Amino acid sequence: MSKTQICLCFIIFLYIWSSGSSREVVGQLETDCFSSDGRSKSSGICSPRASSLRKLADVASNGELLDWPKNDTRRFFHVVYRVGDLDRTIKFYTECFGMKVSRQRDVPKEKYSNAFMGFGSEKSHFAVELTYNYGVSSYDIGDGFGHFTISTQDVYKMVETVRAKGGNVTREPGPVEGGSSIIAIVKDPDGYPFELIQRGPTPEPFCQVMLRVGDLDRAIKFYEKALGMRLLRRIKKPEYKYTIGMMGFNESVVLELTYKYGVTEYKKGNAYAQIAIGTDDVYKSGEVVKIVNKELGGKITREPGPLPGIGTKIVSFLDPDGWKTVLVDNKDFMKELG
Asked: Which residues does 27 contact at the CB level (< 8 Å), separation at least 6?
């Protein structure tokens, strides 16, 4: 580091020490070093290196902001996708998987209905949000969406129930190749694949969402920096030409990112919509996402603010592969649940 850089860093340190926050430094520098027309003032430290000083202050401010997701209160709320017959799907999930409806709503003005289902209260459990758009009976799932995962104490029994109710069993129950876990794969009436995995009792049976990505390292970095998730496990399967990154805030619910060797893009279709995650501050979280978008890709699709009609504050964005996430204000979400 040069003497000039050391001096500039020391100046920023003095600003931070006196103001108490690097976020205040940028505003203070604007006042102290720049006139209203954007030109640097001629006195003191501001004349020769005001531009460099401001850039360093921005870096310090961004660094502080990027710590926010790790300190925020975050939890998976629900995953949203579209179905062609809401009553049919509710019946299938209730009878085959053991889910229960927590709430339903119909919005004639916007021509859609939805239902929230899961294995417990939405105040503490991950749920599915099923959306039915008036008059639309089918959707294209594409090849980018992988599957949902439900854990059960008896995969064989659940598969027989699915079969008896007219479901499609695409993989019979049995051990995974090269392992001992018992799994099966079934499809719901709309063609969404569900991986059923045999495990002991758990408070969160609905436990995974699998999405395919074109660059696993980039995707992992994005979800770590933009959302504060941790890489729980990396599973390499070179014999089957894929690698998985298990991302989450804890082990109870996991976002399973899968990279297939040599495949960088996928067709997403119009069936799968998004994942909703809680945050204590959608505005601050939105600023973090914008910084990460510039570095890794993706974009904000809805600026932070309240939703018309219900007032719940959200911010929505795409990751570098085009998968959508919505961050929802924690307090507003609890009010919405009533």
From this structure: none
322: alpha, beta or left? (left if phi > 0; alpha if psi -120 to 50)? left
Cα separation, 101 vs 79, whole angstroms:
14
pLDDT at 44 over 60: no
CA–CA gap between residue 305 and residue 300 (Å, rounded): 12
- Report the DSSP beta bridge partners of residue 299: 318
* DSSP β-bridge partners for residue 212: 258
Contact 82, 273 (CB under 8 A): yes
Task: Tell me the whole-structure pTM to 2 decimals.
Answer: 0.83
64 — pLDDT class (breaks 50, 70, 90): confident
Known catalytic residues?
195
With residue 161 as reference, give the H or E element that holds it.
helix 155-164
**Crossing angle, helix 216-227 and helix 282-296, to 10 degrees?**
150
The one-letter amino acid at 105 = R
Q: What's the mean per-residue pLDDT of the chain?
A: 88
Q: Residue 184's CB: how many other CB atoms inside 10 A?
A: 21
Residue 277, strand partner residues: 76, 327
Q: What is the DSSP track for 170-191?
A: EEEEEEPTTS--EEEEEE-TT-
- Asked if 231 and 215 count as a contact pair (C-beta separation under 8 A), the reply is no
Residue 152 CB coordination number (10 Å): 19
- Distance CA(214)–CA(234), nearest Å, equals 16
